[in-house]
Amino acid sequence: MNTYGSPSNVGPDAGLDTGPDAGPSAAQLRTGRPTGLYTDQYELTMLEGALKSGAAERRSMFEVFARSLPDGRRYGIVGGTGRFLEALANYRFGDDELAWLREHDIVDGPTLDWLADYRFDGTIHGYAEGEAFFPGSPILTVEASFASGVVLETLALSILNHDSAVASAASRMTSAAAGRPCLEMGSRRTHEEAAVAAARAAVIGGFFGTSNMEAGRRYGLRTLGTSAHAFTLLHDTEEEAFAAQVRSHGQSTTLLVDTYDVARGVERAVRVAGVGLGGVRLDSGDLLTQARDVRAQLDSLGATSTKITVTSDLDEYAIAGLAAAPVDSYGVGTSLVTGSGFPTVGLVYKLVARQNDDGDWVSVAKASTNKASVGGRKFPIRRIGDDGHATDEVIGVGSYPEVTGRTRDLHVRFVDDGRIDPAYVGPEAVSAATSRRAESVGELPDTARKLQRGEPAIDTAFVAAR
Amino acid sequence: MNTYGSPSNVGPDAGLDTGPDAGPSAAQLRTGRPTGLYTDQYELTMLEGALKSGAAERRSMFEVFARSLPDGRRYGIVGGTGRFLEALANYRFGDDELAWLREHDIVDGPTLDWLADYRFDGTIHGYAEGEAFFPGSPILTVEASFASGVVLETLALSILNHDSAVASAASRMTSAAAGRPCLEMGSRRTHEEAAVAAARAAVIGGFFGTSNMEAGRRYGLRTLGTSAHAFTLLHDTEEEAFAAQVRSHGQSTTLLVDTYDVARGVERAVRVAGVGLGGVRLDSGDLLTQARDVRAQLDSLGATSTKITVTSDLDEYAIAGLAAAPVDSYGVGTSLVTGSGFPTVGLVYKLVARQNDDGDWVSVAKASTNKASVGGRKFPIRRIGDDGHATDEVIGVGSYPEVTGRTRDLHVRFVDDGRIDPAYVGPEAVSAATSRRAESVGELPDTARKLQRGEPAIDTAFVAAR
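ok -> structure tokens follow
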């Protein structure tokens, strides 16, 4: 059921190297579905042009970064790196893809031959998934021939823009929830495959689990879900519906109590399930008032341990607004999967350096007033103050920055001459990213967790070699 | 490479009926990937509860509708119906899916057995893809056993919410473009599979073509694309880059002229390619001023037939703002694939009627102040005035509405006792939807095409049987 690169295809031995050392991993990665056509046509026409001009083999450095954070956000969270690496392992052009490109005359014969043999053999560094990022942070750098790197633009940006948007929104929500579990239930509000990726990104952003079954299966996430109004309406009475659910799911289930009248729903729920009822869910109305009323009613009925879950059009602001309400968990849908107003985080994929005919690196950048980028290879570090909080981000341009005091390297190596580091793919990478996000956000100054619009939580400086 | 339901798997003979009459079509549809886990857990727990309570086989009517249009929009465009039907043909639970559900104790044994045998055998009516819709329009109605219908909620909503959001935004953009071609190039700003669906929905909304290769292959869409700044920066000079592109793609290619200096870029482009150069692309700066300057420069150089394409952060308002500029086509990215501010259109999937133990239909609806729905089966028609423009939408509740004058039925039958009508799936359905959208929007009063916020273009009335 995976679109591409099932995690099981990119296990501990996965690599892109198809040479003699790769052995089983090369065979393993071929079992995924080809992802070569997740590509914009201009990448293929640039490839053809470069193959013709002779510049295709020039060693090049491409960089993924955001020019700014979405309006007033204090930080972003890198999401999607693991998915990108899994897709990269399957970035190739099978017979179907090549036949279509040929029939539609998209590129010429030599370019088709080049695509047929494509296996990424370059090196990729970047911010580990779950890491906080800021404007200009080089969250992914691809070093390869121009030809090998240029074709990855759309694949990298599609995945990183989407998943980072959701992970960034999720992180704000879980901060606002201040320890109460957040539950991802937005699948119905986004594309069916994007929903799977969104669930994964939400968990990286600190969500407890997801309602999405495929996300649970593919990435080993906790799943959850009880019932909708339809289940109550199906039965002749609310009691019958509650009784049916308790019969099949036990007393620990969560009953949806707002189909008819909340107070009567709560009373029936406790009568049917007993005071040990697991939880009740509120999905409409003024949640602040209702949560207080329902908590009082549950307590008066003796159901003091019954939890209250709320789920109606929540975002980080609504969650913060319920901080004083007796709510035990938040179910978040639309706002989460659409990045809470910013469904994409503005990441771009730019050529920042390439070699000339003598093999020397040349920094390159578009000369434009409103789309500035910094040429050259980047070496990013985060500086940590005496109190353990990050103070700023320093990005060496062309060489490692010379700074004093405590620092933390931000770039890790994902791919080395075509071989993917297994630490960054598969379900384990999701767990690692979840922990990393908590640490990275925890390391930021307190201003980072403000919901109000403002400047990035820390400054970023680009430092060129002296 | 398809996620599910390749159009080729849902050809003219495709059906869901697995009985003796179905023959080849049943085998055909099984070649798609299972889509059963594109489902929220609560649908499966409701299924289990209903199987236990005995209500699972109650004949039920589920309806997809929007409570309102996104803020101030005048109409919406139905998108995704064809993709939903293709996914429905593959909605089943294979060994992998069942094993995962069993291992994680999501549902009990009898429910697993029921899922293993699942083939949708109900009937589905709805608005044909490309049709305009309004608040309350029943764009999809699913009539089946409760069990068969309840599990489709997430699949239906994921697809229809996403694709309708993009088709609706696209329609506003192509109206604003007033005949100039709009080109979809947003793949880098959305999930990689959502990008494929977005390209399809954009074309339904009137876009000329897409940069997305997989969308071209899967749905037979026109594709296009030339080069990015990276191609210019790769070469030692802009001239070399232009010459390489013209050598490989011919004089009719479109050259990106704003990497360094637009005026010099245009001069070099014409010098290298000749006055027969196909086009130039502007991707930054003040497009209105630049387009005028570039047009004047091209004309003065004799390149009077060279086209100008603009592509920088356009939405329907920016497109409208360029109406007086000498622009020949618009490339639209982020705003299109994210629904121009509304990445989901708020469609919900509700149980509106179900039979009781006597086999009588009972209308049902949640009693809630802010989430009202109208119970019962719907029969929607659009009334057409003497001038050929739609005047209002009338939705019969429980029976066909009794109205006079010229009318148009809005419901078509997509699935009849499990058999999918081939007219509504595959690449041909996309072409049909493209035409339908143009006709349906053309039929609306002129206010429909206003970009300013306002009321829906026509009113909707619910009429109950007398």
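Chain B has 16 helices and 19 strands.
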